[in-house]
């Protein structure tokens, strides 16, 4: 499993580009499907943006903001965005491929990251007992009384270049509109 997670980590971006070709080939968007898809994409973008402003990679364990609800808000946000774009495409094949890719690629990566976090941060096991891996809690995990919860940092958001997710989503929506207008049945 560790070997596959390393492979999955390396191929997830190139596979994403390959998936985009498959996506646009099968997409049959309508104005309604694009609007409904955007309703799911926007919360995914917001979750990712908030998460990126709370995570200090390899420096400290992120437990504030969205990390108080789920251990993997970046992946949750990506999943929401993917589901939104599957709705926008109006293709069951896209949805099936998206779910298959998530389980084949992202679940092993998540498990591998958890192994790293356990080794790097001794407090991870306690955090993992209180905060679910993917589906968020309804109430935030409370931090230690001696610990000051970190707030959102625009500097971190910019450092992690999370604005690229927004730019990518806008480009996808624009491409769907072009696809819809140029290739009408």
Number of strands: 0
Low-confidence segments, ≥5 residues, pLDDT <50? none
Count of runs of 4 or more consecutive helical residues: 7
Structural class: mainly alpha
- Principal-axis shape: globular
Instruction: Spell the H/E element sequence.
Output: HHHHHHH
What percent of the residues sit in helical stretches (DSSP H or I)? 55-70%
What does this structure look like?
This protein is mainly alpha-helical. The chain has one domain. Helices cover 68% and strands 0% of the residues. The model has no long low-confidence stretch (mean pLDDT 88).
Features:
single chain, 185 residues, mainly alpha
Topology overview:
Blueprint: H1 2-26, H2 31-52, H3 73-89, H4 92-120, H5 124-130, H6 154-159, H7 163-182
Helix pairs in contact: 1-4, 2-3, 2-7, 3-4, 3-7
Give a concise summary.
The chain is mainly α.
């Amino acid at each position: 499993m560790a070997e596959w997670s390393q492979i999955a980590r390396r191929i997830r971006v190139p596979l994403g580009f390959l998936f985009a070709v498959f996506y646009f080939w099968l997409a049959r968007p309508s104005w309604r499907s694009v609007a409904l898809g955007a309703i799911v994409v926007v919360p995914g973008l917001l979750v990712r943006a908030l998460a990126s402003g709370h995570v200090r990679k390899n420096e400290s364990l992120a437990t504030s903001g969205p990390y108080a609800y789920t251990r993997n808000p970046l992946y949750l946000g990506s999943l929401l965005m993917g589901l939104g774009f599957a709705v926008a495409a109006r293709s069951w094949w896209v949805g099936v491929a998206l779910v298959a890719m998530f389980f084949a690629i992202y679940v092993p990566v998540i498990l591998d990251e958890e192994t790293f976090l356990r080794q790097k941060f001794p407090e991870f096991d306690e955090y993992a007992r209180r905060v679910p891996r993917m589906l968020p809690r309804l109430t935030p995990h409370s931090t230690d009384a001696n610990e000051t919860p970190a707030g959102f940092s625009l500097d971190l958001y910019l450092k992690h270049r999370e604005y690229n997710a927004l730019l990518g989503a806008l480009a996808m929506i624009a491409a769907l509109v072009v696809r819809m207008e140029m290739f009408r049945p």
